[in-house]
Design brief:
Length: 230
């Protein structure tokens, strides 16, 4: 696990070429962060054969065959970095793609926007994205391939698993535990010391007042189960 500071993130990304898996809107956001940290995007990948590049002039490769073709063209993967532009409740996909990059010898540095406030005691894993105006407080632990989207607040001593997505404006109060592949919707609030399971979806604007079991969708204020997620 990499230490979660803005300085560490900038050291990792300066002047590095980046590949991005996912070629639509999230790729635009990540390309901005990469540029702000001194890196540059050299390749895009997407599983959708109908997808077109969202970044003019950057080549787009489709699927595993496209990825293999691109790998075969690279003389030095040790200098390459990557990130994953797939948001929402697709944490498992993000983790699988993260494994693919790592197995190819490509680094997955955490991307931290310069306007994010990240405690020096927070612990941020590889492949994470901490976007504009996020607050990540003391002793929080953020698992691999997790997204903290614009203006969300992750308070002290929260522990987030792998493949989590905290949507814009959401708030995790102190000492919250979030399982793998869970999505907390935009402007949702999770009260202190609660545990949210694996593969949970918390609806936008929900207020979570009690623990949520694995693979559950909750909505409303107070949040109530709506369905089982996949």
């Amino acid at each position: 696990m990499a230490r979660g500071s803005r300085e560490a993130a900038s050291v990792k990304t300066v002047s590095r070429p980046f590949a991005i898996w996912g070629a639509t809107g999230q790729a635009l956001v990540l390309a901005d962060v990469i540029a702000l940290r001194g890196g540059h995007v050299v390749a895009l990948f997407d599983n959708n054969p109908q997808c077109v590049s969202s970044l003019p002039g950057i080549p787009l490769y489709h699927g595993l065959k496209g990825y293999a073709d691109w790998l075969a063209q690279q003389a030095d993967l040790n200098s390459m970095a990557a990130t994953i532009a797939i948001g929402g409740a697709r944490g498992r996909d993000r983790r699988e793609i993260a494994d693919r990059f790592l197995q190819s010898g490509i680094a997955l540095p955490a991307l931290i926007h310069p306007t994010a406030s990240v405690s020096t005691s927070a612990n941020v894993s590889e492949g994470c994205q901490i976007l504009a105006n996020v607050v990540l407080a003391a002793r929080a632990v953020i698992g691999r391939a997790t997204i903290l989207n614009n203006s969300c607040n992750v308070d002290h001593e929260c522990r987030l698993g792998e493949g989590v997505h905290i949507a814009p404006g959401a708030t995790l109060c102190g000492c919250v535990t979030i399982g793998d592949d869970t999505m907390i919707g935009a402007a949702a609030v999770v009260l202190p010391r609660l545990t949210i399971g694996n593969s949970v979806i918390v609806g936008a604007g929900a207020v979570v007042t009690r623990d949520v079991p694995d693979r559950t969708v909750v909505v409303g204020n107070p949040a109530r189960p709506l369905a089982r997620s996949r």
